[in-house]
Amino acid sequence: MPKYAALIYRVEAEWPEQGSPASRQLYQAWGTFNQDVARAGVMSFGTGLQPSTTATSVRVRDGKTLITDGPFAETREQLGGVLIFDCKDLDEAIMWASKVPDVEHGCIELRPLWDG
Asked: In a 3-state reduction of DSSP, which class is residue 20?
């Protein structure tokens, strides 16, 4: 069965404040989503990421390792988590991606994993 990475992008500055009603609602939505994917047996892995301010980018140029603080790309949305779906096809992966709670305020990018 093909595996798809669901990369969760959202604008970090728009995340609800911890403990706020919006934050509690988002965590409740995640709880429901996690139960649904567990029941369906389609998610083999999932995790959130610390804010992009904690990121370290590593590049090697001309044999030298260059380390910079922060994410590689300058974008409005930041990568906030990764889910791995075991789905029969892309259509099923799209269906599950459309149920990820953050999709209403961000973007879920689906990518097939390398097979092999």
From this structure: coil
